[in-house]
Amino acid sequence: MNNVPLKEKSIVLIGFMGVGKTTIGQAIAKKLQREFIDIDEKIEKEYHMPTSDIFKRYGEKTFRKKEKDMIEHFSMQKFKVISVGGGAFLQKEIRDICLAECIVVFLDLTWDSWKERIALLIDSRPVLQGKSIDEIKELYYSRQPIYKENHLKIQTDDLDTEEAADAIIDSLKTT
Ligand SMILES: Nc1ncnc2c1ncn2[C@@H]1O[C@H](COP(=O)(O)OP(=O)(O)OP(=O)(O)O)[C@@H](O)[C@H]1O
Ligand SMILES: O=C(O)C1=C[C@@H](O)[C@@H](O)[C@H](O)C1
Ligand SMILES: [Mg+2]
Question: What's the CA-to-centroid distance between 104 and ligand 1, angstroms?
Fold first, then answer.
């Protein structure tokens, strides 16, 4: 599918959990009249339970395998906006397929802005649970290198959802 024109390629949003991949992805899809695919949501639907319960009952390894299968499937489709989980790019196979088949957009948010959102996230993100703020900070920084593999980076600290979606669409038009 590598010869697919840029305009037809699916857009994949990456970044640390809680940076806004789902929220901003929905806004981009609406503006571009594309179908929105949220990989976490697809997995939760398949297991009929929230991610935290999938981690508890089946373990992270099972979740990661399903995440890879889902992304391998959807990244081959055109005209989608796909939000992947915050840990998806840990897997090389996922990075490789998304970078080859799609336009990968990294939503960057500084640690200082991110930590203001923690209360919104802690209950639903199993990877954050039971960790001190220092451990979460360490996780945040340890994940940053994997997000460097992207086609476009958008700094979202000073942007609301609509502004971030517009900034991404504008940048893609000029790419
Ligand atoms: N640009 C923004 N400004 C302020 N708050 C935002 C913005 N984008 C998202 N949020 C809020 O941050 C929280 C996390 O957003 P969202 O669920 O979209 O993150 P995510 O990147 O999809 O996370 P995950 O990787 O865990 O799926 C939500 O409560 C959302 O309303
Ligand atoms: O950063 C992570 O490892 C995760 C982020 C979420 O989007 C979910 O995919 C899950 O909670 C794991
Ligand atoms: Mg999400």
Answer: 18
